[in-house]
Design a protein that fits this description.
- The chain is α/β, with parallel strands linked by helices.
- It folds into 2 domains: 205 residues, Rossmann fold (3-Layer(aba) Sandwich), CATH 3.40.50; 91 residues, Rossmann fold (3-Layer(aba) Sandwich).
- The chain contains 14 helices and 10 strands.
- Strands 1-2-10-7-8-9 form a 6-stranded mixed sheet, with helices on both faces.
- Helix 9 links the parallel strand 7 and strand 8.
Length: 324
Amino acid sequence: MDSASPLSELPTVADVASAATRIAPYVLRTPILRADELDAYAGCVLLFKCENLQRGGAFKLRGAMNAVWSLSDAEAAHGVATHSSGNHGAALARAARARGIPCHVVVPVGAVASKLRNIEEQGAVLHRCAPTLAAREAALVKVLASTGATPIHPYDDARVIAGQGTAARELLEEQPLLDVIIAPIGGGGLIGGTALVARAHPHPLRVIAAEPAGADDAARSFRAGQRFTDGPRETIADGLRGSLGVRNFALLHAYVDMVWTVDEAAIIAATRLLWERLRVIVEPSSAVPLAALLQHRDQIAGLRVGVILSGGNVDLDDLPWVRK
């Protein structure tokens, strides 16, 4: 475990504003949806920022585009590289293609098949490795050495965090009187950018991170005030298996009010509920915030809650509620 990095090393709300301008030609301003049935279940007003409808099917495009278009020509000359279980890799590949540069993605064995197809369809070169963070990082070092590519971390990168914050920026531009904003947390890029924007917003609101109990390093880090990177990564929410980053923990520690965890049954139930009641396709990682809200109804009763749905890249041959 380790402590937070200095706030001086982190992106700012001004960086988020710059990112919004930089990426505007390449990303969608995603819709905000509501469902009366879900409001009734939660006992509050829920406003869903639908990043599952983003190009590429996830919020990750925002951070990837900002990172790629922030590079100088010299930095971009040999392309970019990363490790990813799917969504960041596909987003980085799409961003690299938009700039006309190569992209290399280290992917773990066992990653969701539909997400790997998405990466390949965007033109990236895949490099497979064992399904551990150590294996990913070791494989990435080799790729960087052989290609000269610029590394773009999936979440522990100030440019990526600033780009991810643009989703919350749009949400609060359209719904400025929210009382709470909640987003899932894995590595912490989305919640970091979200918290930056929320804390600069003139109307006070609580910022909540939601996490699977089977990958609860953020919750443990939040409670202890120290960053933990150990522990299990056993969850159906594959997009939230990443270890909490250094910059991301600093933002969590400084600006987030609480971290709620939920079990696997609650995640699956919330995923199905969003399919049925909001009538959108979301992946289990996206459903973690709704699952958390439903378990904490007493703390959100009567409030206006913004929920960031992080992605919708689902393997339709392996739906979580279908019996094997």
